[in-house]
Amino acid sequence: MNASRSCLCVPGMNERMIEKALASAADEIVLDLEDAVPPDGKDAARSVVTATLAASPSGAASARSLSIRVNAVRTAWCHEDVVACASVDGPARPLVIPKVESAGDLAFIDRLLDGVEARVGRREPTTIQALIETPRGLSNLREIVAVTPRLRAVIIGYADLGASLGRPAAGASMTWLAAQHDVLVAARGVGLAAIDGPYLGVDVGDDFTASTDHAARTGFDGKWVIHPRQIEAVNAAFTPSSDQVSKARRIVAVLDEAHALGLGAVSLDGQMIDEALAVAARRTLARVPADAG
User: Fold this and answer.
1) Residues paired with 224 in a beta bridge
2) How many other CB atoms are there within 10 angstroms of residue 279's CB atom?
3) Distance (Å, rounded) from C-alpha 202 to C-alpha 204?
4) 20 to 30 A from 130, CA-CA: which of 7, 60, 66, 268?
5) Are strands 266-268 and 271-273 parallel, antiparallel or unpaired?
6) Would you call 19 exposed, middle or buried from its count of C-beta atoms within 10 A (0-12, 13-18, 19+)?
7) In terms of Cα–Cα distance, which of 197, 203, 216 is closest to 159?
8) Which residues share a beta bridge with 96?
9) Does pLDDT of 257 surpass 90?
């Protein structure tokens, strides 16, 4: 499954916003039960989200494109969110786990899901995504990404991380380069997607464009967005051009032919092509949207 280019996060208690999000061009819609919902609204929001899951088995709200950000481990609502969302009939929906700080956090979710799935008879495992938002989470990335095969993506969250570090979350892209590098290396080391956090504003001006382009050039697979008007630009930034796709296909084809002949490398357009370039080419092809043909 290709990683999502654009992940639109919407409050789990706002049915109107959810309806609009499901009609958008976002690759993934994240129904938020955490930061977007006040403590006295958690139960109501959970009811709205589970009703949305039950009513949306296909189409824009497919298993690929609809996920839920539950409340953080150790809060009063996390286990209720996980049990309720994983118990809904239909395809298993990915769960985004916020403020992951240790391997133990994901191990708890993993075991809780084991029990829920056994109770409801679900054969398809529920996948999870880890949102890294604290210095402790950054420090423990190596252990976090290796703890469970349910994990599919690592996301960097700038608002809480910035607050923890005493750093403006909306600072220049280079300000976050070290943290972005750590997330990318940890994710790539075990074959996971790496998703950039949202630009903390609703506009699509120069700062937003710079942030999005930087994330794409740095190597992220996609980016969270907090307003539908940002989706088109994010999708474009994380979609390879037709020239890039054509070149990638040629590289893979030529190297496959070389391997069939027992050769480790071959020349293409005056450049030596080896497995390292093929890895990059395959990554480019994996970023081609499913509906692009």
Assistant:
1) 7
2) 10
3) 7
4) 60
5) antiparallel
6) exposed
7) 197
8) 69, 129
9) no
Q: Extract the tokens encoding 125.
A: 């495992």
**CA 98 to CA 195: how far, in whole Å?**
13
Residues 168-175: what's their mean pLDDT?
A: 70
Q: How far apart are the first and last CA of the chain?
A: 15
Burial state string for 182-213 with b = 16 or more CB within 10 A and e = fewer than 16: bbbebbeeeebbbbbbbbeeeebeeebeebbe
Please give the pLDDT value at position 252. Answer: 84
Report how far Cα 88 is from the mean position of its chain's Cα atoms: 22
CA–CA gap between residue 15 and residue 28 (Å, rounded): 17
Instruction: Provide the token pair at 291.
Output: 């509906």
- DSSP codes of every residue in the chain: -PPPSEEEEEETT-HHHHHHHHTS--SEEEEESSTTS-GGGHHHHHHHHHHHHHH-SSGGG-TTTEEEE-PPTTSSSHHHHHHHHHTSSSSPPPEEE-S--SHHHHHHHHHHHHHHHHHHT--SPPPEEEEE-SHHHHHTHHHHTTS-TTEEEEEE-HHHHHHHHT--TT--GGGGHHHHHHHHHHHHHTT-EEEEPPPSSS--SHHHHHHHHHHHHHT-SEEEESSGGGHHHHHHHTS--HHHHHHHHHHHHHHHHHHHTT-S-EEETTEEE-HHHHHHHHHHHHTS-GGG-
Residue 233 buriedness (CB in 10 A; 0-12 / 13-18 / 19+): middle
Q: Which two tokens stand for residue 213?
A: 């382009």
Tell me the C-alpha distance between 160 and 137, whole Å.
11
Residue showing tokens 């208690």: 13
Length of the chain: 293
- The span from the CA of 220 to the CA of 3, in Å, is 10
pTM (two decimals): 0.88
